[in-house]
Queue: 2 jobs
Job 1
Amino acid sequence: MAVNQSDPSSTRVTLSQSDTAILEALVPGYTFISRIFLSYLHIDLAAYLQYFIALALFSICMRYVSEYLTQFFETYLISTAEVRLDDEIFNYIMYWWSRQPHTKHTNRFLAGVRTNGYWSDDEDSDHEESDSEDDEWEGVNGSTTAESFDDYWMRVINRDKYKKLRFTPAQGRHYFWYQGRLLMLDRRYEQTTARWVLNNEKLYLSCLGRDPSILHKLLADAQQKFVERDGGRTIIYRGQRGSSGSTFSWNRCMSRPPRPLDTVILDDTQKQGFLGDIENYLEKGTAAWYAEHGIPYRRGYLLSGPPGTGKSSLCFAVAGKLGLKIYLLNLSSRALDEDNLYSLFSELPRRCILLVEDVDTSEITHSRGPSIFPQSANSKDDDSPPKPGGNSSPDDTGKKNSKEKAEQPGITLSSLLNVLDGVAASEGRILVMTTNHPEKLDDALLRAGRIDMQIEFRLAISEDIEKLYKSIYSVSKEERTRQSSRRENGSRPPSQNGSAKNANGSIEKIGNGHAEEHKPNSVQGRRHELQTRIESLAKDFASLVPSGEFSPAEIQGYLLKHKGHPERAIREVAEWVKEEKEKKRAKKEAEAKLTNKNKS
């Protein structure tokens, strides 16, 4: 490289052909660009080449130095907590963040109206229900005319048109103060070639210093706020696939107020036996006793009976009384394979109820027919061997069944049995299966150790019918307590014109209420009179409904049609019984004709 320094104003650097070729290879188009600069701007790029190289080297060095300093700073001077989307703590943080005051002033947020794990429609429905009660109470006390249904429904429809907006932190870094400390929340969507895209979203909570105690406090506070939102409600999870191609997981679907156990229509001996057995299983020392005797710490129940007899209701009521979470599993899902089934069972907590409803609808649980081992007298007609002289031989039938089973996706009975009480089966959970046809289930599924107690539900008898009638028309304890507190506060209870609310919120007239304003004690007396009348009315109603012919759900459905008129329900029940019997008779005749047609 030769440098001409005779004239500083016209400094030019002459590069050799090899140097020019190297620059052309490193910077494509260098020769063309240098000629343009030299011709039009009279600037020789070769004269400044050394400065360009120095600047490039400095930039590269600064890049590596900044990365090193950043890594050093984050490693030794910052504490960070990583939270993944597939963990429930992600929902805790999102719920906690959405309730913080600083979220109202942030200029970067993710807005949406869709419900998910940390928001549910139950929360909004509770607010709407309380608002409706307040509106009704204000209408009773503040106006002389009640709101018509059209006006009320128009107001409800207009309110439902606007879904509640929900705000969460947008992608990127967010700085906020918590207990006097500056923290940072970083929400990232990491790009990867993994199959399950949902797991790529992560949260990073960071604070200055090597002491992460402030992060532990924040996470504990978020969990407490999330749990306190539910209160005494029963949380229900469902095993389902998050997105196409992803694995199955337990997703929170709803939370419901606990159902009182006395509202489940069942023999008190069976009801208390079921509850007592679960309490004995969950009490202190039981797990150690099972381990000492070499017995797997598991418990299984089968609730069988006709549809509408309260099998699922009993499970829900017991879960609410004991504060247990319910996990729903559908065995009929074709997308559920053996690996996903094992994954779902491994994620179950130790104290929960695993509910498998209508287990007889899944083909894998059906009886496999008689075996070489001795069995009970109950034979399975559906899976009996083919009769001699049939159109297909046993070999052909076996090949056909094997081919069909190989083509069908989903789980098998063997995998279900292994996950229930196999070597790698989870312990501590309570399995509850419901069925309308226990005779269809395979004996291996019903053996001791998998099903420890079986409760058979019945159709409603006279005693059950009386309980149903009184539960519909009796004033609930909660309503009586609310009305008593309102009277103590000096306000008039919502019982104008001699009306009283029953358990379903409907208005039941007691008598002429024109003189009620002048008789403060008449309301309480008439309520007592109503309770006395309901006792006798319930017996009259039970005498008109045949015992052991209708399910509690059928009778309850009829009573709900007359929820505000207990006497009308008694007058019209005979006609309803006659119609229902005719419908059932016609249905049986149709089924018999279809069966005879298939046999022929």
Note: DSSP finds 19 helices and 17 strands in the chain.
Job 2
Amino acid sequence: MHESMMIVKKKKYILMKKQMILLLLLMAQATLYAQPRYDSSVFKQRQPKGGEALQIVYDARNKDLEFSDEVQAALFIYDNFRWKRESLKMVKNEEGLWTVQVAVMPSTALIGVKFFQGDINQPDVFDNNNNKGYAVALADMQGNPIPGAYLGEAAFQAPEIAAGGTFGYYTVDPAPLDAGYLKALAVKEQALSGEQYLKYFETLLRLQQLALGSDFNAYASQFINKSLADKNLSEEALGELYQYTKFRLKDNVLTQRIESRIMTQFPKGASARFVAYNNTIESSSDIHQATTSYEDFLKRFPLKEWQENPNNQGFLYYAVYRGIGSGYFDTKQFDKFIALYDDIDFRTGNELMRWNIMRAYMFKTIGQDTLYQISEAILPKLMARKNDGSYLNDFNNKAKADSNMLNQLDDRLFTHISLLNDLKKYKAARTYFFELSEAGKYSNAELNEINLQVLEGLQDDKQILPLLEMSARENAMTPKMFDKLKSIYLKQHNGNEEGYEAYVSNLRSDEEKAEMRAYVDQHWVNYTMPTFRLENADGLFVTPADWNGKIVVVDFWATWCRPCIMAFPGMQLLVDKYKDDKAVAVYMVGTMQTGDYKSKSVNFVRGEGYQFNLLHDSVNPRTNEQDFVFKQLVPLFGDSSIPRKIIVKDGKVRYCSGGYSGSPSKLMDELSLAIEILKNEK
């Protein structure tokens, strides 16, 4: 018995020892969770204070930046509950350490730093402490944490809390933080920052959402209800609570409660305006009901009243006028549509004209005479507001905003000039041509051809040659324009076309030629062309053997691809240029089409009068999609977009470019230059 009891006691001792070890491990783990995982040792001061200069000292030895000759510090600063980022160059001291001094605001609660070489957005080398971070929390002059310190600590380590504030710091999302640690930080921040919750409550709630998981919604509702108990909440506070409850929490009952309070206490304020906007019914299938809701909004919150005291809610009026404008246009209330232009700014008016007039012109949904009357009524009003600065908020840079305004106005003028040309109102069309920006007058090939038609309609032969030469200089020519230019040249040279090609080449500016050469040089590749057996429009087959000894241009296209179709005139120019050159071949390969893709392609190309060697991409036996050859080239392309041009020589894809610039002559010149360079290879 005595020996038996000894064994029992020994077992109990071993069990207690194991439990003690487990408890110690748990305590150690809890201690670990209670501490941030970032490293503060790169900051010289042990307890930095807001308002004082902060010294950063970085030892790059045995790290990725050890051999860098220029190190920068990217600072992620949490100040007054907002993140901001700046970069500072560091200096290497005599000890081989990189240093920099940072001016710190008294309201700065936390600073994170990432060391890097090169461009912060795409650094050559960087050090962020193996994705754990370098950071330090700051204190006030009495040594107390600065409001936001605990939120900053959490948000720096959990980017979802920072909501983009620490974008670029981590290469991958850091490991999740312990829920208990997060809860403790939330409690500490509420105790520290108290009634300032308007500044930080969204960040706090993101923190609590991570910490509480499935219990979060109940907490958030309780938090907001508790806030609403304050009868003296400002309009701004109610507005913040409304936005969070409606769009994040999606609690309709609580949203209605806040909404009612806003409308009762602040019926003409910014928050009421925002609520009223959200209650418009833009998604309604009943266009009359939707239009009425916009009209009601504008009666209650007129644009002119907002213009007298503007705030950051200009986007509401942009959306409302876009909705009401489409409503009037689609229901043919054209007088009301035109009247909108008495009030709206350039940015809004431009969008209404783009969305309604341009679409109606393109898709022929409204008779041209009616469309002309509307467009002619609104365009002068739009032009009168072109310098109102309404794009400044989009670009935050006057030069860029002005450039965008001119581009947009050129596009609207393009539509109007096209309409006038169709209606044979040539004199008016020519007048509007002079309203185009200097950059826009000759840079658009399609518009240049329309201008040629206008001059021919006016029988203004003196202006035709200058137009053609200026268009050639900008390399924005169409086949018809080349035909006209050549006919004028032949007339001037007694039918002798010798020297015509040199004449056309000399019209192009040296700058344009240099840009074209640079563009082509950027698109050289060396990729094995997949084997293929492709059917042509006549039911015959083409294989790699047919391309032996040739330089072959391939254009991947589809009938549903508008840019592909727009590029056809340029491809026709290329075909015409090399039609007698046996060393060059051009093939148009239809791809990624559905149904009877063969008939679709053949009928479209022949119906439009193009003289192309047409091929059909094969059907992929695994997916049953018509993209077998094209998809094998996607690794070269980097994406599956079309149009896509390649040039094949000796079984290798040597050139590759995508998209369409809008100029047939530029496309011809690009591919011609690449062909000639390949021809001259030794």
Note: Residues 21-33 have pLDDT under 50 and may be disordered.
